Structure formats: structure tokens, C-alpha cells
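Example record for the data management plan.
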Amino acid sequence: VELVESGGGRVQPGGSLRLSCTVFGIMFNMRHMSWYRQTPGKERELVSFINSDGDHTTYADSVKGRFTISRDNDKDTVYLQMNNLKPEDTAVYYCHAQGQYSGIQYWGKGTLVTVSS
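Corresponding structural encoding:
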């Protein structure tokens, strides 16, 4: 099983990035997917969640109205569109998968997002 994130990088405040996470080795369409982020010295926090069907999403208050999570079950990929980025969005972003019925969890290795002028 492998979750491969991409799309991180450095961007100026107010800019945009789109993160992608492609899943290998498990049935993607039976997995709820989430994006988490973590900065040094802090706990990993949930940024956004999307259920296996893609018809239910949640967002952390700090990113509501700026980030959008989506998924393409034909491509086994989940996305996080991040707009109007702020310096406080700087973090390593992790992709997370959880079995719809099994509850088994998998993590990606993370992709770094740096928001700085």
C-alpha cells in the first residue's frame, strides 16, 4: 500500500497550490480520505475530509472558504485545492486513508508547503 503526495512547494501569500495524493494497493473507492498537516513542535491536525462517495466533506475552521477537497475515484486520487494561502498554512501536508468498513488507516510520507514572501 502506498499513498503518494505531490504538488507541494513554495508560494507567496495569496497564492494557490493543488496537492494530489494517488493511492496504490488498496481499493480507493472504499476509503474515506483526509488531508492533515503538521508543523514542528505541534500535533498533526486535520485539514479536510472527504467520504468514500465524495458527497460529504469537512474542513478545519482555519481553511474554510479557501481550501477545497475533491476526489476522482477513477484515478484513485484525492486533491486539495488551496487558495489565498497564508504564512500560517506552512506545514508538511499528509494524505490519510481510512477503510470505510475496516477502519484500517494508511498515511503518505508528506509534502511540504511553504508560504512566504
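Summary line stored alongside the record: The two ends are 37 Å apart (CA to CA).
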